[in-house]
Amino acid sequence: MSAAKLATSGRLPLPARYRAFFLVLLALVTTIPALGLVFTAGGKAEAHGTPMKPGSRTFLCWQDGLTDTGEIKPVNPACAAAAQESGTTPFYNWFSVLRSDGAGRTRGFVPDGELCSGGNTNFTGFNQPRDDWPLTHLTAGATVDFSYNAWAAHPGWFYVYITKDGFDPTQPITWNDMEEQPFLSVDHPPLNGSPGTVEANYSWTGALPEGKDGRHIIYMVWQRSDSQETFYSCSDVVFDGGNGEVTGIKDPGNPPTEPPPGDCSATRRTTGSWSGGYQSEVTVTNTGDVPMLGWMVDWTLPDGQAIDSLWSGTMTVQGQEVMVHNAGWNGALDPGESTTFGYVVSGSGGDPATDLTCQVG
After folding, report:
1. Is the pLDDT of residue 21 over 60?
2. Which of 95, 110, 180, 205 could form an SS bridge with 49, CB 3.0 to 4.6 Å?
3. Cis omega (within 30 of 0) on the bond before 54?
């Protein structure tokens, strides 16, 4: 497939060293190395979040709306309109604009007019065509620092697109508004800080496109390399000679760090056992003070054990490390609400007393 056809096919290109693995995992067609400027960094990237520099709509609206009491009361008119349409739960879950079945797809998968929500119905309020979203001021062609929040741990790639010249923010954003190729592609950048915090992020440096002027959208796609889960985000920017200043939120100089977006717990019980295996059920509870749209539970299986089947969740396994995400129907939990998933393990040793880690996301 030619580079031009690949760029418009709606499927993101993969670095060569991951190609065979990802083809088996996702049953995708043959791919080529990422287009655009590629950054490769050592170590394992860890991400479940959204851009902080330049800030995405969900991140900056969360900053704008969060009060000292932990309530969401947006001041920015576009953020307030998003809350009116979608409620305030998406604001607490600003890091979860994702599609579990994304598989890196873009054009032909995410519908026109729904790019900022990634087609995720929880975030439709952030698709509204308006010219008063929180805004980051930039200079065309400048070399800048990008920062992407790392709320939870997954490896992946980042693809950074921008709108074409003449973009009109008061019209619904379509794929025809976007440049066909990413101007930056970032290969598994390293993590800074501890996941599960607002401060945790990966950072990289790259050049902004030359010749841009006025209002634009920087559109970032984060594609996990260990599952089909893909994240989408819109960052509203203006090329006016700025150096990353943010306007349109109530206190851009002091982004909130408390309260955290939420918390959850996971407890396990054995529901059956036999020679060479057992069955377990895990209860996930929203132990925070705010609603959440998704959760992840991870633990380490003893050597010699393997999960044969799992239900009411989606599983990723790397060696003996197990990570389970919510299914499409049991991720949204109000404070105090619980759900369950179950699994069957083969191998000796019985159900171990290993700790489970639960994260919102």
Report:
1. no
2. 95
3. yes
